[in-house]
Amino acid sequence: MTTPAPPTPETTAESRRRVVSVALERFLAAGFSSVTMDDLARELGMSKKTLYEMFPSKLELLREASEFKSERWREEMAAIARDSRDFFERAGRTFQFVAELYSRLSHAYLTDLRRSAPSVWADMQEFRRKCVRRNILDLLEQGVRERVVRSDIDPDRLAEMYLTMTSGLLNPEVSGLTTGAQIGASYEAFVRVYRDGLLTIEGRRAAARRER
């Protein structure tokens, strides 16, 4: 009888990443509380014992799924900053990517994080305060250098405005939004007004030329 080869670090990492990816999609769609480890084990085609060996608790799985989502965000923002030709392309790609993320969020997921997993919610808010704020600030500073974003308003205040408004969208008790589609659409409306308010006369002309 052939003895199965022991798992390698690569296959273990791949399996873990698959579990995290599937769990993240389920959490985003249905919320943290309503998704059970039994549900995930069945969908992944593995035993609940194996799943618990990888993740001793659902909270630990949620935490790693949240970190996975944040890492994907970092990678995408870095690629956008690297590959975009100017402020307008970078801003468009940035806001479109975030709108797509928001469109996948459910009321249950956002509510569950705050009530059932406050430590994960706190980590997400810290990520927004540091990484998201820094990314928006870099974008604004690029626009100022290119003379399409106003230089008479403190970029730090503008970055804080972005965080404050988007934080409200992500809080169902404040926004009243109950589906990801609504959150995504409201975010797109906000960033359109936000971006247009930032532009210089030259920037408005450049934006109009792009929209023709």
What does this structure look like?
The protein has helices spanning 9-30, 37-44, 48-54, 58-83, 87-102, 107-116, 118-145, 155-169, 172-175, 180-198, 201-211. With 212 residues, it is mainly alpha-helical. It has a domain at 66-211: Tetracycline Repressor, domain 2, CATH 1.10.357.10. The longest helix has 28 residues, at 118-145.
CATH architecture of the domain at 66-211: Orthogonal Bundle
CATH topology of the domain at 66-211: the name is Tetracycline Repressor, domain 2
Sheet having the most strands: none
The number of helical segments is 11
As residue ranges, the low-confidence spans are: 1-7
Distance between the termini: 70 Å
Quickly give the structural class.
mainly alpha
* Whole-number mean pLDDT: 91
Nearest-angstrom radius of gyration? 20 Å
Percentage beta strand: under 5%
Oligomer: single chain
Share of helix, binned:
over 70%
Q: Using the alpha-carbon principal axes, give the shape.
A: elongated
Pattern of helices and strands: HHHHHHHHHHH
CATH class of the domain at 66-211: Mainly Alpha
Total strands: 0
* Name of the CATH homologous superfamily of the domain at 66-211: Tetracycline Repressor, domain 2
